[in-house]
Amino acid sequence: MSGKLIICPTPIGNLGDMPQRALDALSSADVVCAEDTRVTGKLLAAFGIEKRLERLDEAMIGSRAEGVVARVLAGEIIAYCSDAGMPGVSDPGLRLVRACREAGAPVEVLPGPTATATAYVASGCTNPRFYFGGFFPRKAGDQKAALDAVRTLDAALIFYESPNRVAATLDVLAKAFPLREAAVCRELTKLHEEVVRATLPALAAEFAARAAGPGIKGEIVLVIDGPNEAEGQAAQESAEDAARTRAQQLKGEGLRNKDIAKTLAAEFGLPRNVAYDIALEA
């Protein structure tokens, strides 16, 4: 029998969501590699599966991937699980798959639970596209860079966040996108599942109050709507205000209206006719 690496998704909270194909793979594999053997061990025990477990978290994959590939090429069937959901989606697994692909070792990825898609559909967002950014950055500079990169993207924005940081993150998002709606999806598929949808400023206020009071628990996915008409209008007005100040500066330097308009259009992304009107007003 030829070997292969089998990527096995697991439930994100409800054992009833365990895929049958993943159960079959875990039962028939020669060994199960796991992000955390304690977590996966409990999962296997819940379904009556007895299998040898080996720890293979993100920190270990770099040094052990080559050995796993060699074992697959030698005929071993290795199943891989992260703690919950689809391995490789903000979880260990991608580098292991890449190592197998580069070596020509067979890989089978089984479809199954993922918090990203579940939250996207549950959020109430109607944009047909989404961008998944993984866990929201912790440092202010990284946060700004991440949001600037997707500010004009016509898609919902999805981030994972911890309950201890979600209030602070919502405050950052509310300041960056004050006119957008979003959803906080908490404890998806679990008994206390909750989806709270509102404007970002309202969500920031709500979860700041929770953090200061009873606290916030559970895994959290944030889904932020894409750009809307109100946001576009506000951005246009802001650009025009800045362009008026710049036009006065350029006129003071002796530039002609035609040249001022050309500069404004280039610097502020304004339509030529709007830029020329502003140049005339300066």
UniProtKB/TrEMBL annotation:
It is an enzyme of class 2 (transferase). Residues 4-203 form the Tetrapyrrole methylase domain. GO terms for molecular function: rRNA (cytosine-2'-O-)-methyltransferase activity. Gene3D superfamilies: Cobalt-precorrin-4 Transmethylase, Domain 1 (3.40.1010.10), Methyltransferase, Cobalt-precorrin-4 Transmethylase, Domain 2 (3.30.950.10). Keywords: Cytoplasm, Methyltransferase, rRNA processing, S-adenosyl-L-methionine, Transferase. Pfam families: TP_methylase. GO terms for cellular component: cytoplasm. InterPro entries: 4pyrrol_Mease, 4pyrrol_Methylase_sf, 4pyrrole_Mease_sub1, 4pyrrole_Mease_sub2, rRNA_ssu_MeTfrase_I, SAM_MeTrfase_RsmI_CS. It is found in: Cytoplasm. Catalyzes the 2'-O-methylation of the ribose of cytidine 1402 (C1402) in 16S rRNA. This is Ribosomal RNA small subunit methyltransferase I. It comes from Senegalimassilia faecalis.
